Amino acid sequence: MKPNFQTASRVREVRYEIRGALARRARELEQQGHDILHLNIGNPGAFGLRTPETMRRAVVRNLKYSEAYGPQTGIFPAREAVAMQFQGRGLTDTRFDQVMIGNGVSELVDLVLRSLLEPGDEVLVPAPDYPLWTAAVVLNGGRAVHYPCRAENAFMPDVSELEKLITAKTRALVVINPNNPTGAVYSEETLRALADLAARHDLILFSDEIYDSICFDEARFIPMAPLASDTLCVSFGGLSKVYRACGWRVGWAVFTGQLERAEDYRLAVEKLAALRLSANVPGQWAVQTALGGYQSIADLVTTGGRLHASRQAVIDAVEASDFLDLVTPMGAMYAFPSIRRDRLPELDDHRFAAELLERKHILVVPGSSFNIEDRHYFRITLLPEAEQLEEAFEAIDELLTEMAESQESTT
User: What is the CATH number of domain 9-50+299-409?
Assistant: First the structure.
């Protein structure tokens, strides 16, 4: 028998359990007739959260202009709208040619890292992280160096600890704010410290801000770019989350700060963008409408809004549980609960998630999938209705009770 076809070793190093083996098993169970509650992915449309009507109309009105390839950097109205947003954030000299439109932030993350890294170069990535960042570093020949953001510090980075990880090979620092998976929203003090650190060590700042308008209660989103004038800052945003248009695949990267030093680098990113010809054109016509109109996300995140109510349901369920702890998520659309070590000290998060799927038909993401060693966490999305999340946490508590009883009976 002939051996299997070769698989690139770098792909074997990639972790993306959000759509990995557990998600494949969930599809199998659905094909067998089971209803699965998908708490594994932040996909607003799957939970009935529609793209604003004005954005849909903008796409329809401009379909006749969308049949040809667009510019590799994006159509002018979209780039200008993003530039104007940054002007409104205090960067009054931002121009459209500092903006690049991509097929979602995911594609742009790959392009900016591919244009930067030589083999063995290091990128500082938060842990827990959105695993795309680690994967993109690995796939482009680099090494992801994870800086811990611990629960006891509300999942905020310790900048002095982070600085000790910098070496001669460090090229960039990734910041995810508001944070996926933890829901942390960074303070201005923390962001200034990170910007100052990047400037001192001449690192590019990659600021993932896709959840910029999803903040709860007193939390306030502060953009990184105005704080990072002494280095190059690349800020990422898009239509997927705040505007509930994941399937349109429209994201942007904005280059600010020390642009003269970064011109060759920016042009390298543009060259790679040209290889894929253009980003999705129809969706780009919605950017100007999205950024310039009424921000309907406010209705969802304020007290009484759907996302706020779902978040509160999770907070209440964890408080009522004998097994769970939670650092209250202040932004994004996720919660990152932990299972108490005094109740289940030998817990394995992948086994827990697998049993939850098989026995309760609920799909979550094991916490270690986000590049942390602690195996007592799991991530869920806050997108379902509050009642669905209440029922899900009842089932989670039932399973944890069963697991605790089984553990006690074997000791």
Answer: 3.90.1150.10
